[in-house]
Amino acid sequence: MVRRCALISTLVLAATAVTFIAGCGGGGGGGPVEPAATVSGTMRDDAELQTLSGARVTIGTASALTNAFGVFTVNTTAGGKTITISLAGYQNMTLTRDLSAGANSIGMRYLKPALQASRGAASGTVRYGGQGIAGAHVESGGSQATTKADGSYAIYNLPTGERGILAIDQANSRAGSTSVTINAGTTVAGANIRLNLTPPNLPVF
């Protein structure tokens, strides 16, 4: 009788141990699942400011393409993420963000055109009376740019050497210029332009 009771006790203890082990290792584990998150934004050309369609935005294994308006939304998860944006003919952009659960936005972003061989770039601000001028037209050596809301601009793929850069406001009433030395593969910063009133066209008799 004593032997039988001892055997039953041993079996009960073994079954309890198996159950405990199964409970600890079961269910697939892997830790908590990160909550869902989305990332949205708009991509534009850094020079002429037009929206960019077909740019690929990648976050981990998730990605999306910008639409005809340059807008994108990527479905991902919350947490620290690296966002990579690429498009043929442009330099890649990489951002690091700590995403919260739900909707996140990176706002308006500008992709820089890729520099061609033996070409450089210049950047600066177009001002009139100390104020940055938005929407001004900037040109040099066949390249063009448009100033952003704060008057800043960047113009790409300029031939190397001494180059003049011309800026004209949207009303064609104010213009200015500057000159810079362009080096291959680099961007010359501080190419600022101050606009002045242009004389009116003389009447034709």
Brief summary of the model shown:
The chain has one helix spanning 2-25, and strands at 36-45, 56-59, 62-65, 71-77, 79-86, 93-99, 102-111, 119-128, 131-132, 137-140, 143-146, 152-159, 161-168, 174-182, 187-188, 193-194, 196-197.
Walk me through this protein's architecture.
This protein has 205 residues and is mostly beta strands. The chain folds into two domains: 36-111, Immunoglobulin-like (Sandwich); 119-197, Immunoglobulin-like (Sandwich). It contains one helix and 17 strands. The protein has one helix at 2-25; strands at residues 36-45, 56-59, 62-65, 71-77, 79-86, 93-99, 102-111, 119-128, 131-132, 137-140, 143-146, 152-159, 161-168, 174-182, 187-188, 193-194, 196-197. Strands 8, 9, 12, 15 and 16 form a five-stranded mixed beta sheet that branches. A hairpin with a 5-residue loop joins β13 and β14. It is elongated. Mean pLDDT is 87; it is low at 1-27.
Key words describing this protein structure:
205 residues; mainly beta; Immunoglobulin-like; 2 domains; five-stranded mixed β-sheet; five-stranded antiparallel β-sheet; 1 helix; 12% helix; elongated; disordered N terminus
Mean pLDDT across residues: 87
Q: Could you say how many structural domains there are in total?
A: 2
Which class of the largest domain in CATH terms? Mainly Beta
Low-confidence stretches: 1-27
Determine the strand fraction and express it as a percent band. over 45%
**Between the first and last Cα atoms, what is the distance in angstroms?**
132 Å
Quantity of strands, as a count: 17
SS class: mainly beta
- Reading the helices and strands in chain order gives HEEEEEEEEEEEEEEEEE
Specify the overall morphology.
Answer: elongated
CATH architecture of the largest domain: Sandwich
